[in-house]
Amino acid sequence: MGTERQGASRISDRLSAVARLIPPGRIVADIGSDHAQLLVHLAEHQVLDRGIAGEVNRGPYENAADRVRESGWSDRIDVRLGDGLKVLRPGEADVVVLAGMGGSLIASILSRGKEKLDATTQLVLQPNNHGDQVRRWLLEQGWEIKQEELVKEGGILYEIVSASSGAPEHPYQGLPFSGDILRKLGPLLCRDRHPLLGERVAEEVDRLDRALDSLRSARTPEAQMRQQQLAADRRRWEEVQSWLSQERI
């Protein structure tokens, strides 16, 4: 007899938002699965055909294996130990999820495992920072952003990007900002004027203000040049704030 399945588990708002982007009946690989929470949730809600939880370190691997076994979904979820996409066979996963890690790490994992994505139809990516690096990778590798979401949890904004193979430039067209700003904010979040986008822009302005404050007393030519660049960047973000205010009128 198989392990008796537990009742539905609770997951964070961040992971719930990730889960909502995954259509039913897919083989889903969650790389860096954090106790396989997402895959167990998808199985409980009858979304998952089959799941693969990948962990690079022994401790998290054992934690994920224990969670899957305790939940009773061992027949549906396979937990594997390995580095990034190396846990997958080429074309094995319909959907690949990388959530809860830095954007540079997400881009690195995808680059090192590109050959495993030939039959993958959807990437769901949730960077904790440097989302622009994730969007740049998608743009350069031919993945079109199809959906974006912002979620606030514990006072922190989390961005989620879903992409499929397609026309990577398309989401960026027709918007009044430079590519670097759109890669930071998310082109679809801008197009949809997401209600949390104003807070996201305010974070960028605050970051620039702190950087400018740290250079107030500096007198070297290099520091003064840096001040000028930061001030110019701040004016660009103020233009975004103004645009958002106008759109809400």
Automatic annotation (TrEMBL):
Keyword Glycoprotein part of the UniProt annotation: no
Pfam families per the UniProt record, alphabetical: TrmK (PF04816)
GO function term, MF aspect, one: tRNA (adenine(22)-N1)-methyltransferase activity
Domain of life where this protein originates: Bacteria
UniProt entry keywords in alphabetical sequence: Methyltransferase, Transferase
Entries under Gene3D superfamilies matching the protein: Vaccinia Virus protein VP39 (3.40.50.150)
UniProt keyword rRNA-binding present: no
A biological process from GO: methylation
Native species: Melghirimyces thermohalophilus
Lineage: Bacteria, Bacillati, Bacillota, Bacilli, Bacillales
Protein name as annotated: tRNA (Adenine22-N1)-methyltransferase
